[in-house]
Amino acid sequence: xxxxxxxxxxxxxxxxxxxxxxxxxxxxxxxxxxxxxxxxxxxxxxxxxxxxxxxxxxxxxxxxxxxxxxxxxxxxxxxxxxxxxxxxxxxxxxxxxxxxxxxxxxxxxxxxxxxxxxxxxxxxxxxxxxxxxxxxxxxxxxxxxxxxxxxxxxxxxxxxxxxxxxxxxxxxxxxxxxxxxxxxxxxxxxxxxxxxxxxxxxxxxxxxxxxxxxxxxxxxxxxxxxxxxxxxxxxxxxxxxxxxxxxxxxxxxxxxxxxxxxxxxxxxxxxxxxxxxxxxxxxxxxxxxxxxxxxxxxxxxxxxxxxxxxxxxxxxxxxxxxxxxxxxxxxxxxxxxxxxxxxxxxxxxxxxxxxxxxxxxxxxxxxxxxxxxxxxxxxxxxxxxxxxxxxxxxxx
Length: 396
Hints:
- It contains one helix and 32 strands.
- It has one helix spanning 2-20; strands at residues 60-65, 71-76, 87-90, 102-104, 110-115, 120-127, 132-135, 141-142, 149-154, 160-165, 169-175, 182-188, 196-201, 207-212, 217-223, 230-232, 238-239, 249-251, 257-261, 266-271, 278-280, 292-297, 303-308, 313-319, 326-328, 334-335, 340-345, 351-356, 361-367, 374-376, 382-383, 390-395.
- It is globular.
- The chain starts with a helix and ends with a strand.
């Protein structure tokens, strides 16, 4: 009996040792991590509305550019035509040449000016009181192609801006009507060598004409109304003569005729409204008193004026509405002073202004709407900025 008890007790001890003495300990469970709290999202701030700029004061303004990297402003008395004193608008726009270097959008919200010293286009928003310029946030706008800038022209729709560069490049920019920003688009270079100087667009916005100074030609392009790209007009370029030196082109307000200043006289062309092709007007080129340095047409399309550099005379012409032939208006030529820089007809067609570079002055004339004759304004010549080389006019 005692023997049996001893055997049972031994077996119990073996079982206890076998179950707990030699086995691995039961692993402690890994604690479940406490989830990271999801942060409360930061409320998105409500955008601050863009402040509507104070409107430009109504009136007529004369923009004056020179070689001092500045663009200046004078007011025009719409009754007398008198030019007020000039104020500096910006020192970041260098419109130093006689070529067009200022453009205003049809909405009159934005103004663009060449800054030729740095081969860029400056963009500004216009506002009041009076007329002030605020440089756009993304301005200046750089040109993709190299080469000096000569002039620029804005499409009548305001959607496309073209910059003419030497020797033969036309750079297109798309304009943003909300911000005023420019985006580089197409670049045109002709297949033949040229010397591009100034471009002009007809009032319908269908055609562009570019002068080839040393080549004696006018290049013509059709403008794509969707994207502003340029396509060569059949027959382009149109040759005047190898020694003509075509410089400044002007299309009359009807869009029927193109006139170009030459080394001697003015060339005239009839414009084919369907194709844009040019045909020389009978009697072209038309004589001027001396080399026509700049030309301008009245807003109605009745008269054309050319200022000459060496003798300070203004030649006035009546435009035949059917043929485009030019004839001198009564009293032409009209005297100013030597070394004229630029000529501008105000948007109302009542006044004509001529800048004198060496005299730092502006001559003003009243324009007879029936005959085209010019009469000096009281107080003319008016003081201007130093060496005025370019004039641009706008009405608000």
